[in-house]
Amino acid sequence: MVHMACPVGGLAVPKFISSFKRFILVQFVIIVLTFLSVYVFDQFTAGQVGFTRILRQVGRILIVIVFGSVAVIVIQRTKPLLSKYLGTHAAAVIQLLMILIACIIVIFAILHIFDAPPSSLLIGGGIVSIVFGLVI
């Protein structure tokens, strides 16, 4: 591995890259744990107890919301690291975008739990944005 000698914000670039890799790994672990938790809930808890469909959906949604909240908390804790390398304002913008992406993923996961096709939502959003674009 080639180490770059140019410091960014007082720290070497490879340290930022290793921190970013660790952040991506943590997010990936959160996603895998979410899928495993939903699977365990479906197979053992909901299947054995005999929950109705609504209670299964509520349980899945709670699992998705809890792990989505954990992902958002992890994203919020990255601001000091990002501020060192990118500055306060750029770090705030990037952090906001990452939180919005996490929230959108949680929303689509909840829609999937309710068996709502995301394609119709995306098409409807595209049509609404075209209409607003033409009106404004």
What does this protein structure show overall?
By secondary structure, this protein is mostly helical. Helix content is about 85%, strand content about 5%. It is built from five helices and two strands; from the N terminus they run E-E-H-H-H-H-H. A two-stranded antiparallel sheet has the order 1-2.
Q: What layout of secondary structure does this protein have?
A:
Layout: E1 7-8, E2 11-12, H1 13-49, H2 53-76, H3 79-86, H4 88-113, H5 118-135
Antiparallel strand pairs: 1-2
| Strand line-up across the major sheet | 1-2
Helix-strand topology string: EEHHHHH
Instruction: Count the beta strands.
Output: 2
Oligomer state of the chains in this structure: single chain
Distance between the termini: 52 Å
Fraction in helix: over 70%
- Number of H- or I-type helical stretches: 5
Radius of gyration: 20 Å
Mean pLDDT: 80
Tell me the fraction of residues in β-strands, as a range: under 5%
Q: Which structural class matches the secondary elements?
A: mainly alpha
What are the segments in which pLDDT stays under 50 over at least 5 consecutive residues? 1-8
List keywords for this structure.
136 residues, mainly alpha, two-stranded antiparallel sheet, 5 helices, 2 strands, disordered N terminus
Short description:
The chain has helices at 13-49, 53-76, 79-86, 88-113, 118-135, and strands at 7-8, 11-12. The chain has 136 residues and is mainly α.
